[in-house]
Amino acid sequence: MFSRYYYRVRKLLLPIFVVAYPFIVHLSVVSNDWLPIVLVLLFGLAVIWLIDAIHAGNKLFIMALIVITVGLILLILRGDSLQILYIPPLLINVAFFLLFANSLRPQKIPLITRFATLVRGKIDPQIADYTRRVTQWWAYLFLIIIVETIALTLYAPITIWSLFTNFINYFLIALFFFIEYQIRIRWLSDVKHHSFLKMLRAISKVDIRRVI
Q1: N or C: which end of the chain has fewer CB within 10 A?
Q2: Start-to-end CA span in the chain (Å)
Q3: Between these two residues, 133 and 54, which has the higher pLDDT value?
Q4: What span, in angstroms and rounded, lies between the C-alpha atoms of 130 and 180?
Q5: How far from 37 is each of 51, 70, 92, 183, CA to CA, in Å?
């Protein structure tokens, strides 16, 4: 009963949280007036992802999200509101890097291979090899973003940090996704491919709990 209602609420609220968060954070940086709303959004996202991770049974993701949630609570209690803004972009990218990198370990199924299997069904060795490579590329991308985020946190004005972590990095991820699709249809030229929009719709229907 709880799971059914939780996933209905999650399906409604999570997209709103994800879309609203970068805009609210950037407004907080510029005006310094939105910090309470940012804290509520952060805590809400952390709780949603923690419950998802518990349902999926992903111990690594569970531990990462517990650390994030506890860290947020401690910083809120200390009143370090500005410092809180620096933490989520770094930890979220670290979590995604670990998710992709951990799936490349021996005896594990690469993350993109899992997606491909859920979308296409049984896949041949050529697709399996390609999806493993793509999983590696995603891990490298998030590693680069982690290094960039640390550098911006340490050396850049907070407005520049906010532009990158809340807008430019998301654009780069979307651009990478599109470029990878173009590479895929050429690399696997003998395989039937969905259009880009149909592929996005197919991916959106995948139960993320079966992937992580």
Answers
A1: N
A2: 23
A3: 133
A4: 11
A5: 21, 18, 19, 40
d(CA 198, CA 67): 37
Query: Distance between CA atoms of 195 and 40, rounded to whole angstroms?
Result: 38
Q: Over pLDDT 70: what percentage of the chain? A: 67
Residue 38's nearest CA partner among 6, 77, 72, 7 is 72
Name the residue among 180, 96, 98 with its Cα closest to residue 131.
180
Residue 50 pLDDT exceeds 80: no
Residues 6+ away with beta carbon under 8 Å from 54: 62
- Taking the CA atoms of residue 150, residue 85, residue 17 and residue 103 in that order, the dihedral angle to the nearest 10 degrees is 30
Looking at residue 76, its amino acid is: I
Which positions ≥6 away from 160 have C-beta within 8 Å?
152
Nearest to 145 by CA among 26, 42, 19, 137: 137
Count: domains in the chain: 1
